[in-house]
């Protein structure tokens, strides 16, 4: 399916580091790249470097005074709560501007490669910092690299970009930035804001002309319910919107082992989502697909396997889930983290879901979430909310 695939990588991307006790540990990305390399996945893609986003590029979505405030914190390491740096979620650290700008530069590089035709698909697994607001750091995110990447494409002629966010947390920053821009369709599937940060992402948040779409899933939702919701909402909207580019945020914190949230997906359910997004990029966006990482706080058991599968799927060479993780990688994990690494590239599940077209069950909490979203936004797009 894939003609050319780029993975944007620079070893300096792991410098985005809030400290040893912070959940967003850069080792998760380090272990992912190591696993993908040992599995031969990186042999199937073009590995390219990146440069930091310039102030002008950051200013496509961020306020100039905010960028200057982050630079001041970066130079001194001293907190500045007016810009959101110095909190428990977003500790201040020396070099925070440079580290954040490099991640954003990587998402710009991925977006540029896809928009200009240098690659059909491009990935920045260190990116996906979707909570950052125009003038405020939030939720472990300083600069909103997905929004900057999308804004870069709009600045260079894109007229319709679809953003699909499968992180367990609502993609609030990206939604807020493009809330009034009908050129960008934002779709976020996440745990209900009633039980999880950031407390937004209700179906009633519809943006301009229904271009903000929110599927708020109940805590405890597993593979079958999540996949049912995805297929009931995402494909019909993408087919109607016909984006020129599909941009996805691939947070894997929907996994049952994730310590910060309450959905119950398996690695195998997440793999099905990757395959579905890949197919939809080809069906609805002429194959143009930009993907980033995102949340994911089970650093050894989940993130490296999930995103190695993501890269392999984008490369058109999915990994057999029964594959044994390489011994050399397991030794590296033990040495690097002291933890026992996973042995296989699967959780041993074979997820199945009922298609929503088979009927709506008002007694089912997932179906109620699906219907709330479809009723809120489908009429804007000329679609029937009923199955």
UniProtKB/TrEMBL annotation:
Keyword Nucleotidyltransferase annotated: no
One Pfam family from the record: Hist_deacetyl
Sorted UniProt keywords: Acetoin catabolism
Cited SUPFAM superfamilies: Arginase/deacetylase (SSF52768)
CDD domains from the UniProt entry: HDAC_AcuC_like
InterPro entries: AcuC, HDACs, His_deacetylse_dom, His_deacetylse_dom_sf, Ureohydrolase_dom_sf
Histone deacetylase domain boundaries: 22-312
Pathway field: Ketone degradation; acetoin degradation
Keyword Transport set for record: no
Family named by the database record: Belongs to the histone deacetylase family.
Name this protein carries in UniProt: Acetoin utilization protein AcuC
Source organism (scientific name): Sphaerisporangium dianthi
């Amino acid at each position: 399916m894939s003609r050319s695939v780029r993975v944007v990588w620079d070893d300096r991307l792991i410098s985005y580091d809030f400290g040893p006790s912070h959940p967003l540990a850069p080792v998760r990305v380090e272990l992912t790249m190591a696993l993908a390399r040992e599995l031969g996945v990186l042999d199937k893609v073009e590995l390219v470097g990146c440069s930091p986003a310039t102030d002008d590029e950051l200013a496509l979505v961020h306020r100039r005074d905010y960028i200057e405030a982050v630079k001041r914190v970066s130079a001194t390491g001293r907190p500045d709560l007016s810009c959101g740096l110095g909190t428990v979620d977003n500790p201040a650290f020396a070099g925070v501007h440079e580290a954040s700008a490099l991640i954003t530069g990587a998402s710009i590089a991925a977006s540029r490669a896809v928009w200009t035709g240098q690659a059909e698909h491009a990935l920045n697994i260190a990116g996906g910092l979707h909570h950052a607001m125009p003038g405020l750091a939030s939720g472990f995110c300083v600069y909103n690299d997905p929004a900057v990447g999308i804004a870069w494409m709009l600045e260079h002629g894109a007229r319709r970009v679809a953003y699909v966010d499968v992180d367990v947390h609502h993609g609030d920053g990206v939604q807020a930035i493009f809330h009034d821009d009908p050129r960008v369709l934002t779709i976020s599937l996440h745990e209900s804001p009633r039980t999880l940060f950031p407390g937004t992402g209700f179906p009633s948040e519809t943006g301009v002309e229904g271009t903000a779409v929110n599927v708020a899933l109940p805590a405890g939702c597993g593979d079958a319910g999540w996949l049912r919701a995805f297929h009931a909402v995402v494909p019909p909207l993408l087919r109607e919107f016909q984006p020129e580019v599909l941009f996805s945020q691939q947070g894997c914190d929907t996994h049952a082992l994730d310590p910060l949230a309450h959905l119950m997906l398996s690695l195998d359910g997440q793999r099905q989502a990757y395959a579905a997004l890949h197919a939809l990029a080809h069906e609805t966006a002429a194959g143009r697909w930009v993907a980033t990482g995102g949340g994911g706080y089970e650093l050894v058991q989940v993130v490296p396997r999930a995103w190695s599968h993501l890269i392999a799927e984008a490369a058109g060479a999915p990994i057999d889930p029964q594959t044994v993780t390489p011994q050399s990688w397991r030794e590296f994990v033990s040495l690097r983290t002291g933890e026992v690494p996973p042995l296989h590239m699967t959780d041993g599940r074979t997820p199945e879901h009922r298609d929503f077209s088979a009927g709506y069950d008002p007694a089912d909490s997932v179906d109620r979430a699906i219907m709330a979203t479809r009723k809120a936004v489908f009429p804007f797009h000329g679609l029937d909310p009923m199955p």
